Write the structure tokens for this entry.
Amino acid sequence: MTAQEEPSSLAGQVLVATPLTGQFFERSVVLVLHHDDNGATGVTLNKPMEAPVRAVLPDWQPHVTPPGVLFQGGPVQTDSAMGLVSVPGGVAAHTEALGISMLFGGLALVDLDAPPPVVVPEIAGLRIFVGYAGWSEGQLEEELIDGAWYVVEREPRDPFHESADLWRDVLVRQRNSLSLLANYTQHPEHN
């Protein structure tokens, strides 16, 4: 995607890491939650941690989408957690009162201080992320120009994907030359 083709906001899109993103984001898939002239935020969708959700939010453990662990959302504010949920049917008039803040395309953030029994009947999927990915003004745009990320359309289940290799799966489904990169190996010496 060239700078001229970039939409004004990438919110709702998925960033697929190239080898230029650096070690933290190696083979990452990041859902952009917010993007404007002041910067961008997102969560890394494919970095499960070993810690079960019950280690920090025991009341939410029975309601999270498998595998039931926390996910490393990014390197920013790793002492905080956010819940990303799917809301069937999209925007419901009463979701704000339930602690659900709609984002886009049936996805929302959930207030993890809300009682799960009140929220759970309104949601279909739930992942809890520790920290988030953040870019200052113009930083993401520079990384895109440098070739650090591929921007692709999000599919509804991407945030709750259960495959061991979401990075590869997202690339494989592309209907262009990006699909060829799915077989890129981290260890070319093994070819």
The chain has one domain: 14-190.
